[in-house]
């Protein structure tokens, strides 16, 4: 079997490439340049130059593949040019689907995100079929990831075999950039987290996310979305676990989300609009912090056999990886 992985130089994509190699799958990684890619360090994969915005390179990349894992996305919560999100996340998804269909690829697994799932009624857990409201999709990242799913559903109605994997918040090794969650771990290790915000999260071991993608390829139902998550928690609770792992005290101060949101609006005006540079507190990140939402991942567990590994173990692996790779 041969698989193309877009976004293979990122956190989920890089871990997915590793997981596929361990499964005996020949992996072709789409890379934009021939430079050093730490996420693929030590991996025997075929690297092919290309970009999801370039249909010609995609047609060459998918040739001879049995499955395409479309993980690539612009995940930044702020950009000087918001239209970049549309080009990468929406047009890029359309291009990948078209190339896979033309090449006769058996199945595409599209990586989405839990933030496009709508909030349920008070006291209920969010599930795959919760439809988002307009306010749920505020910000270029959330909106374009939702629009990318719409591209998938259009392709499915045409008869294309596509499954949607929607991770919550992965944690673990090979977070080379790092991701916002990885930065939380790093800030804690470095003692640079004076305040804990009351953010609601759902964490999952990135290696379980990998197994969820592989299971979605092998056992998922065409056109279905699967929430890949595990532990519904809050940032202060995560800090408590990290304290036990690292020996550092958790932050004593806790900042209410409305205060953070107000600061983000001021920061967005000053930094983003007036000075045209990245705000210290991206407004979309603050809005996401408002989402007091817990999710139900029963569907992925029952239909895909999604593992539910220890989150403390995942956090410990994350801490160890950052330390072993001189991030701290």
Question: Main attributes?
Answer:
seven-stranded parallel beta sheet, 11 helices, globular
Give a quick summary of the entry.
The protein has 328 residues and is α/β, with parallel strands linked by helices. The chain has helices at 11-22, 55-62, 83-103, 140-157, 180-190, 206-219, 235-246, 257-274, 283-289, 298-304, 311-324; strands at 2-6, 26-31, 46-49, 67-70, 107-111, 162-167, 169-171, 195-197, 200-205, 225-228, 231-234, 253-255.
Our measurement of the CA-to-CA distance between the termini, rounded to an integer number of angstroms, reads 39 Å
Sequence of secondary-structure elements: EHEEHEHEHEEHEEHEEHEHHHH
Major sheet characteristics = 7 strands, parallel
Strand content: 15-25%
Overall shape = globular
Low-confidence stretches: none
Q: Bin the helical content.
A: 40-55%
The number of E-state strands comes to 12
- Report the radius of gyration as a whole number of Å: 19 Å
């Amino acid at each position: 079997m041969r698989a193309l992985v877009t976004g293979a130089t990122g956190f989920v994509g890089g871990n997915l490439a590793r997981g596929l190699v361990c499964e005996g799958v020949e992996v072709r990684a789409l890379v934009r340049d021939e430079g050093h890619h730490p996420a693929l360090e030590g991996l025997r994969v075929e690297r092919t130059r290309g970009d999801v915005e370039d249909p010609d390179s995609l047609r060459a990349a998918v040739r001879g593949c049995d499955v395409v894992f479309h993980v690539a996305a612009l995940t930044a919560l702020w950009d000087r040019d918001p239209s970049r999100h549309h080009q990468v996340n929406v047009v890029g998804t359309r291009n990948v689907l078209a190339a896979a269909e033309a090449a006769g690829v058996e199945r595409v697994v599209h990586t989405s995100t839990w933030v496009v799932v709508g909030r349920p009624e008070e006291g209920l857990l969010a599930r795959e079929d919760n439809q988002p409201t307009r306010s749920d999709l505020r910000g270029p990242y959330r909106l374009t990831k939702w629009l990318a799913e719409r591209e998938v559903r259009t392709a499915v109605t045409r008869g294309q075999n596509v499954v949607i994997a929607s991770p919550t918040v992965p944690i673990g090794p090979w977070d080379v950039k790092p991701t916002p969650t990885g930065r939380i771990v790093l800030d804690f290790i470095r003692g640079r987290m004076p305040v804990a915000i009351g953010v609601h999260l759902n964490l999952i071991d990135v290696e379980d996310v990998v197994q969820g993608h592989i299971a979605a390829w092998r056992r998922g139902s065409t056109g279905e979305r699967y929430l890949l998550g595990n532990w519904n928690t809050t940032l202060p609770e995560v800090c408590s676990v990290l304290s036990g792992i690292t020996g550092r005290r958790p932050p004593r101060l806790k900042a209410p989300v409305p205060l953070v949101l107000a600061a983000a609006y001021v920061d967005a005006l000053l930094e983003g609009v007036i000075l045209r540079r990245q705000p210290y507190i991206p407004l979309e990140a603050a809005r996401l912090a408002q989402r007091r939402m817990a999710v139900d991942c029963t569907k992925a567990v029952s239909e895909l056999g999604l593992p539910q590994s220890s989150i403390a173990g995942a956090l410990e692996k994350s801490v160890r990886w950052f330390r072993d790779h001189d991030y701290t």
